Protein: Oxo-4-hydroxy-4-carboxy-5-ureidoimidazoline decarboxylase
Amino acid sequence: MSIPSIEQLNRESPHVFIETVNTLFETAPPLADRLLAARPYKSYFELIDLAESVCLGNDLSQQDKLDVINAHPRIGENKTNLSAMSLKEQGYNTRQGTESEKDREVNATLAELNKKYEAHYGFKFVVFVAGRSRAEIIPLIRERIASNNKEQEMKTGMTDMMLIARDRLKKATSESKL
Structure:
């Protein structure tokens, strides 16, 4: 994945700007539209800081917040439904036919827990994987379901989205582009 320099991004068409932002945040129109309207940016760090402020503040309606958080793929989701970045972040081997029985069991457990989480909170579970295996996420999602705090879960999910975006930025750019 590569992204244009921030100077170039500031000059790009709305379509290219939004495609680039979607690379960092997934396809979340309420967020992308606000970021587009706030151009120009001095750095990608400034863009992500604004995204975090928008998502954690009062700039978005409850429905917009749901649209933003639900733009992220489910952890353990079928590989065909994941972006290239999500595949790598979730630790999938990108070669076809390499899923082990253990992988299938872990993904089945995650699918069940994702359904439980979404039924409980009304939005997707989002976590910054940060090198952890999908199996290591199972106790975390169980813990977060048990916390029973919808407002905190929305905040945690949005915060993790920003950690994901910062990590994607780090992987996609060199210091000269920041």
Remarks:
- The CA atoms of residues 65 and 98 lie 36 Å apart.
